[in-house]
Amino acid sequence: MKPDDPNLKRLEPPKLTVLEQTYLPQILGGLAVTGRHILGAAFGGTAVTVQYPEEQHVPTANYRGVHRLNKDEQGRVKCVACMLCATACPAHCIDIVGATAPEGWDDREKYPESFVIDELRCIFCGMCEEACPVDAIELTGLYDLTGLSREELIYDKSKLLSVFDMTKDAEPMKTGNPSPSLPQPTTPLDPEGPGPRSTATAAQLPSRS
Amino acid sequence: MATWQIAVILVKIFLIVGIFQGAVAYMIMLERKIAAWSQDRVGPNRAGPFGLIQPLADGAKMLLKEDVIPGYVNKPLYVLAPAIAIIAATIGFAVVPFGPAGIDAPTINGHPIHFQIAPNVDVGILYVFAIGSLAVYAVILGGYASNNKYSFLGGLRNSAQIISYEIPLGLSVIGMVMLSRSLELGDIIAWQDTNGIGIIPAWGILVQPLAFVIFLVSAFAETNRLPFDLAEAEQELVGGFHTEYSAMKFGMFFLGEYLHVITVSFLTAILFLGGWDVPFVGLGVEDTGWIAALIKVGVIFFKVALMVVFIMWIRWTLPRFRYDQLMNLAWKAMIPLALLNLIVTMVLIQLFRGVG
Q1: What is the pLDDT of residues A114-145, one digit of tens each?
Q2: Are A146 and A136 in contact (CB under 8 A)?
Q3: Does A42 touch chain B (CB under 8 A)?
Q4: pTM for this structure?
Q5: Is A67-204 in CATH node 3.30.70.240?
Q6: Could you list the residue ranges that cross the membrane (chain B) (predicted)?
Q7: Nearest Cα to Cα of residue A176 among A167, A165, A168
């Protein structure tokens, strides 16, 4: 549209009255707004701050916090070392060393011998979660990710699996919930008892609260 | 001067300086609280009940932080600048009256106690402005000694602002001075108390409303308070003259700023809000006995506290000025308006009071 187009609608700001030109009514109006907030927060209890250590914030279901590696019904890591998450990761923070699956893991050819996520590099975009074909990697609602050294924040496989143990009750897996009635093997890598892959569908699962 | 008089003055100095420096600590806490409340937050509440020990924690932090003096600064001036800031802000209190003194006032050795460090200084208000204008040396030396072009520009910017706003500040006060025919702050309060119509007192805010607005705006700019705090606009202006200062030296600039806020609040209360005058109660100028004096001291402190809260309230209401807007406001609006106010006051005084 050209500047001299007759269809061009020109908007002019409304003319200020003399009183408005002094800005005093607006300033008084602004003072009324902030005054209301000050009195409300000071005496009316309208402050919205969460008093963190005493009150815990509950993030929404789609919050992207610390990762976990899901386990299947036998307590084996679900990951099949396909490298899709590491490929999808824009921050290149996932490092997987794949290996041939142990004897008896009939449902897959590979498993991750080592699975390391550098939480310091991670940007919590959730691409790994999107990329995973077997829903092995998920982001949990844990947001208080802290550590006393940089090494502490490089999460290896056991740590990622322990995050799963920590959060599985509060946040069930988005797909493939391990049934609690099945006997849990002692170690995640216990090659005993090959089981069928999880056939549960999303509809059968309790929704993540 | 007798020994006891010197002792009384020293006690007053220690009391007043101590009280105000303590008040500054709690003003910083109040400021943080008001900042929080206006944003629907809670504010500092960890140190002690309701966060009341927070000022001590802040002070301890200021003192214990590493006090860096960059290698490239002009060291004597660099150290001198915050000292000037705090000294200039403190000695302004010398002539500020906190309560009445009269014939039946509380006495020592038959001499009435003045609630004022240096009583009966005839040039009272001029002294306050003269001392107040010394603060600009702190600003410009801080910027210059930092040997950093951003700090230097910040210092220049800020000193230009302070000097510009001193003109309307001074002009706005002249109206009250002409009306009360005195530069002594106590006399100005007495005039406001005695010249009312019926029970309505002749407070400066009623007889000089335009001067009140000009004084208030200029006072905000003088004390570097928002919306005129271009000294600390880090986001827009890479900090100001105190960018290179750390720990307690920065704290001293801060302390100076807050002491300045107290001075300005006192001046507003005295010049425009009737000082220790309480309307509708029947406490007149002549009531200066122990009880009346203490009530009046309480009243003026209450008014000052209200002003301080108002200054902080404004801070979280108005956005910061751009530098050219700030200068335009001073030179194109404030100074002409102050002159207009002066001329109108002058004409009205001549018409209604007659010559002399």
Answers
A1: 999 999 999 999 999 999 998 899 998 888 88
A2: no
A3: yes
A4: 0.76
A5: no
A6: 6-29, 77-103, 123-141, 162-180, 200-221, 258-276, 288-313, 333-352
A7: A168
